[in-house]
């Protein structure tokens, strides 16, 4: 029987109506719902919920899979594979290509990114503000007024930057810090979200597909940090009329948010997933129930749609 509670019924106003009440507030990637920094200023909160009786069998299985992954810490290797001299109208600099791979198994998602000396220098300055004692014995390649473009100097810096990143990664509080993670992922994420804001969904996805696997390896201790990027993938796939791929990205984002019903993305994400599930002929009723239960327990003050949230990320 038709009911206002179900899509397709005459009285159904759509899932958006259930979670758009309240005032609109600005949200950012560093919003209040990220884990609070620990005493050393790094993100060190557990990312997985505790098992409880309300979990389904599938959710419990996923929980224990995540727990096992946490027990085996992801180890990354850094290689400065190559370097090239780039000349622009008013500047000339060396761009270093960094390759990041996971050890212990075949890594089909190795990350390749480029950074210049000034990027490394900014990382060093930012880390010194919080981790001066922890990194005081790690040498940083000095800046030279001349000779920066000689083959000898470039080769020397390639080795130095490889050792620098390896030593930083070996320090637990540093590798989990916002500064270190941002150095390796933020430029690409900013570009991807800029493409999303400009309606270049295909280009945004090309970048996200490359950077999200690296972000996942770097944030295993705090999966909620991946939510904006995964939701951006959902939005891009959805607007490119790829509902199955959009739904898959949304499922990953929901897994990251299992214990965070108050997170600013939770209600808008569920709202988007309900529409996708209905379009794909999947179970949307359970998603509706989760959204309704969440709103009863903790009414959301935000009225943004998922797309409105994602376009506000990585503006600077």
Automatic annotation (TrEMBL):
<dbReference type="GO" id="GO:1901981">
    <property type="term" value="F:phosphatidylinositol phosphate binding"/>
</dbReference>
<keyword id="KW-0813">Transport</keyword>
<feature type="compositionally biased region" description="Polar residues">
    <location>
        <begin position="50"/>
        <end position="59"/>
    </location>
</feature>
<dbReference type="Pfam" id="PF00787">
    <property type="entry name" value="PX"/>
</dbReference>
<dbReference type="InterPro" id="IPR036871">
    <property type="entry name" value="PX_dom_sf"/>
</dbReference>
<dbReference type="InterPro" id="IPR039937">
    <property type="entry name" value="SNX20/SNX21"/>
</dbReference>
<keyword id="KW-0472">Membrane</keyword>
<keyword id="KW-0967">Endosome</keyword>
<keyword id="KW-0446">Lipid-binding</keyword>
<feature type="domain" description="PX">
    <location>
        <begin position="74"/>
        <end position="191"/>
    </location>
</feature>
<dbReference type="GO" id="GO:0015031">
    <property type="term" value="P:protein transport"/>
</dbReference>
<dbReference type="GO" id="GO:0031901">
    <property type="term" value="C:early endosome membrane"/>
</dbReference>
<feature type="region of interest" description="Disordered">
    <location>
        <begin position="1"/>
        <end position="59"/>
    </location>
</feature>
<keyword id="KW-0653">Protein transport</keyword>
<comment type="similarity">
    <text>Belongs to the sorting nexin family.</text>
</comment>
<dbReference type="InterPro" id="IPR001683">
    <property type="entry name" value="PX_dom"/>
</dbReference>
<protein>
    <submittedName>
        <fullName>Sorting nexin-20 isoform X4</fullName>
    </submittedName>
</protein>
């Amino acid at each position: 029987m038709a009911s206002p509670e179900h899509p397709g019924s005459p009285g159904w106003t759509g899932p958006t109506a259930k979670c758009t009440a309240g005032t609109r507030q600005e949200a950012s990637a560093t919003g209040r719902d990220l884990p609070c920094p620990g005493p050393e200023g790094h993100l060190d909160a557990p990312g997985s919920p505790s098992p409880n009786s309300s979990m389904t069998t599938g959710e419990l299985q996923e929980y224990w899979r995540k727990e096992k992954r946490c027990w085996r810490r992801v180890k990354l290797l850094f290689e400065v594979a190559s370097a090239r001299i780039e000349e622009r109208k008013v500047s000339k600099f060396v761009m270093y290509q960094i390759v990041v791979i996971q050890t212990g198994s075949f890594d089909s998602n190795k990350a390749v990114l480029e950074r210049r000396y000034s990027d490394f220098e900014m990382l060093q300055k930012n880390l010194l503000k919080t981790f001066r004692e922890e990194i005081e014995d790690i040498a940083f390649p000095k800046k030279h007024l001349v000779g920066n473009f000689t083959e000898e100097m470039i080769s020397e810096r390639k080795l130095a930057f490889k050792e620098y990143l390896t030593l930083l990664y070996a320090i637990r509080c540093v590798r989990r810090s916002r500064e270190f993670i941002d150095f390796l992922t933020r430029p690409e994420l900013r570009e991807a979200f800029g493409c999303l804001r400009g309606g270049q969904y295909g280009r945004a996805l090309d970048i996200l597909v490359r950077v999200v696997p690296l972000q996942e390896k770097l944030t295993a201790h705090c999966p909620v940090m991946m939510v904006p990027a995964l939701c951006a993938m959902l939005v891009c796939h959805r607007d490119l009329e790829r509902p199955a791929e959009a739904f898959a990205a949304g499922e990953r984002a929901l897994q990251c948010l299992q214990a965070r019903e108050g997170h600013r993305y939770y209600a808008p994400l569920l709202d988007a997933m309900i529409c996708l599930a209905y379009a794909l002929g999947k179970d949307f009723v359970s998603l509706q129930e989760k959204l309704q239960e969440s709103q009863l327990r903790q009414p959301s003050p935000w009225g943004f749609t998922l797309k409105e949230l994602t376009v506000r990320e990585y503006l600077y």
